[in-house]
Amino acid sequence: TYEGWEPPSIKYPKGTNAWRTKNPGNIKDKWGKFLVFPNEETGMKYLCDYITRVKNNLHKAYPKDCDIKQFFLVYAPANDKNQPRLYAMWVSDKLKVPLTFKIKDLV
C-alpha cells in the first residue's frame, strides 16, 4: 500500500510505477533502476525473499539484526526523496510494534 500499487485509473492513467513494473516493493537494482518482474507473483516473491535476506543478515546493505527504523533508513533512503522515519512509523503502526522491533522477529 505505502509503495503505491495502483492499476490504471483517472489519477494514474498508466498505473503507478509499482503496478507497471509488477514490483510491489519498488525495489531498485544496484544501479538505481527499478526492477521489473513478469508478473505480480514474481514481484511479491522477490520482495518476500528480500525481507528474508535482511532478517537472516544476508543483505549487506543492512546492519546486523536491524530494527524497523534501521530497515527503512536503507530501504527508503531520504536521498531518494523518501521519508524513512514516516515510512517506518506507518509500518510499525500497522503491525502494532515499536520502531525498535527487530526485522528477524517479524517473519
Write up this protein:
The structure is a single chain. This protein has helices at 17-21, 40-55, 68-75, 84-95. The longest helix has 16 residues, at 40-55. With 107 residues, the chain is an all-alpha fold. Helix content is 38%, strand content 0%. The chain has 4 helices and no strands.
Supply database-style keywords.
single chain, 107 residues, mainly alpha, 38% helix, 0% strand
Short description:
By secondary structure, the protein is mainly α. It is 38% helix and 0% strand.
Strands, total number? 0
**N-to-C series of helices and strands:** HHHH
Q: DSSP strand (E) fraction? A: under 5%
Helix content range: 25-40%
Radius of gyration: 14 Å
- Unreliable segments (pLDDT under 50, ≥5 consecutive)? none
Count of discrete alpha- or pi-helical segments spanning 4 or more residues:
4
Structural class: mainly alpha
* Average pLDDT, all residues: 95
How far the N terminus sits from the C terminus, by CA atoms, comes to 19 Å
Morphology call: globular
The largest sheet is:
none
